[in-house]
């Protein structure tokens, strides 16, 4: 028999047919259609399979190289991967986009429609999931031997339908038509155990006797980086029943009981939890977390043993990154594996674990920090609870040694010794990791001062910053081809994987000809966005108006409320002065609310109500339009962002860990109106104060007001504008006379206003009017927009990944 490698070389030869031939072959033999009967969706699948073949070559090469060079491996564990469509991305990265377009158009088809026949893979809630997807792209581009691990949810984030302005959730079903990108790996399967009890033998060795078992089976997706040089794997786990059918029950004729078990097992990978900052402490969620974490650790250990024969130095060859606390159960699970399966002492197991795991924190919101009732935890993972107690014991001694007081230690242990009710996952992740990182400079500082204050005193070198970034392939090259062509024409194409090259555009910022070309592209993108809105919701907007966009999950701290109240104030002012030279605006909102987050849903309803009144007021006409675009997702972002003039990044300072939408907008030449929060702070540093519109309180002032529970009424009494708006909301002006509809919103802004909408309102208003003025000076605006594109290069996720590789993973990049 020939060696495997030669077989692969032969296979490569077979594939050296033209790209068009590959597509046709797949249409006929994989999809099973001929050209005369194929619809867009069939061509989409055939194209996907043809490009996937090309990716597989690099994939096998990459895998072999990592193996041969014994390159240190990185495992990115994330409950969420917000991927979006894959076809255009893969065609672009492999350099086949033009060829594919020509071929498809020669068949008499619309290329855009074929690309868009693919459903979004939406296995995430928002920023954290999208960051994981950008990181997969950048790990492949920079040559990190990185593998993503997650869950192959059968249903991703719900579809948002609007019923009379209210959000309605509908199940999403991305897999119904199949997934052309995945490879099912039936041979890669692991048992995952739950429940039962722990038996300790005479020699002190513990044995977990679980009461329930499911299997995790692997599905792989190849992720090609820029130019396809390196292709990494995203491995998603799907749950199935451990013994194919419960044979005994089946033979006894109890089909229903047997089927019931199967359903229970499969529930684990059935749906994504749709909350983003309001975690639900439900049993199924904990089981999901353990399910994918345990499967991933078993898988990486199995792979480790193909190269090494002892786990002693695991941390020298493997780095695991925990995307928030969702996979924090990895801490006791790795210790358990080392102790129970490989006979390590607890001390050694703890030490190895703390050299292998790393944790990224994405939020400081107290209610978003995961914690589990101890009873529930013990019921599902009894052995892990024992190990957590050992961790707390060992940690207590460590903390005593560095001179911490008993009551301080109590606060930072995983389980508080006197209030034994919760297992605190943030503390667990921190204590079990080698490095802990924040996602922007400000957020990292606040982590040190607030949630992890005492842990930081004890481990002053553990917390580091790695500011987020976004992939320029998807977020410029693919979503904004006009701008990409212009940039490449001016500075060559090196910017695509070396984004700081965009600096070279600075010299054109005041060049009238360049300004015109740059703004013509913006104008085309706005027309494309206007058509999209027309098609999706039937509202016609004037593409010459300023497009002002806020798109993100709906949350009080993100302050969509402040934005819509400003729209109401603007409407009132326009009504009062109809003949003033108003700058026409289109205010666009999009985003999903967690299904159980009632106040967020009322905010959506308020936006829809205001839109109804404003958009149908003949006196207002084109001067102001308010739009709520339903079902925001990655694909919608790809149309919205390039078409924006103004990007709304107006969170209460201290609450947005980083933001990444802010970066996408600025790269594409939208100017930002924002607070000094998250990565906005660093954007201001890179852009210069003159090229961003900053307003509002800073994080310290916010904290101070929140601390002393400052009353909003003192501010409201001095603001005519707020008084008028509150009166309108109370009187039912926007709600057909329904005076109760906004009760909770009103109670909030009048009496508590934790997120400081009221004290920031007037500054926000004034800043918006200043923005109107600048927009009316086209060449000034164009200069600022160009400088935004030119100076955002640092915010590439390639830079972020190089930072992780150097400071956390200690792994090489190319
Ligand atoms: C936890 C437990 C149970 C159910 C749900 C959750 C859960 C799920 C998702 C908790 C949090 C999230 C998502 C958080 C998130 O998206 N955070 C965002 O992360 C981005 C990437 O770092 C930042 O840019 C944003 O600032 C941050 O809000």
Considering the chains and any ligands shown, give keywords for the structure.
34 helices, 15% strand, 814 residues, 6-stranded parallel β-sheet, Rossmann fold, disordered N terminus, single chain, binds ligand 26Q, globular, 9-stranded mixed β-sheet, alpha/beta
Describe this structure in words.
The chain has 814 residues and is α/β, with parallel strands linked by helices. A 9-stranded mixed sheet has the order 7-10-11-4-1-12-13-16-17. Helix 22 packs across helix 33. The radius of gyration is 27 Å and the shape is globular. The N terminus is likely disordered. It binds ligand 26Q. The site of ligand 26Q has 24 residues, from helix 7.
Helix content: 40-55%
Number of DSSP strand runs? 23
Shape call: globular
**How far apart lie the N and C ends?**
36 Å
Domains counted in the coordinates: how many?
3
Bound small-molecule species: ligand 26Q
Q: Enter the CATH topology name of the largest domain.
A: Rossmann fold
Low-confidence stretches: 1-6
Alpha-beta content class: alpha/beta
Q: Tell me the β content.
A: 15-25%
Q: What is the CATH superfamily of the largest domain?
A: Glycogen Phosphorylase B
Summarize the biggest pleated sheet. Answer: 9 strands, mixed
Please give the order of strands in the largest beta sheet: 7-10-11-4-1-12-13-16-17
Q: What is the count of helical runs? A: 34
Output the CATH class name of the largest domain: Alpha Beta
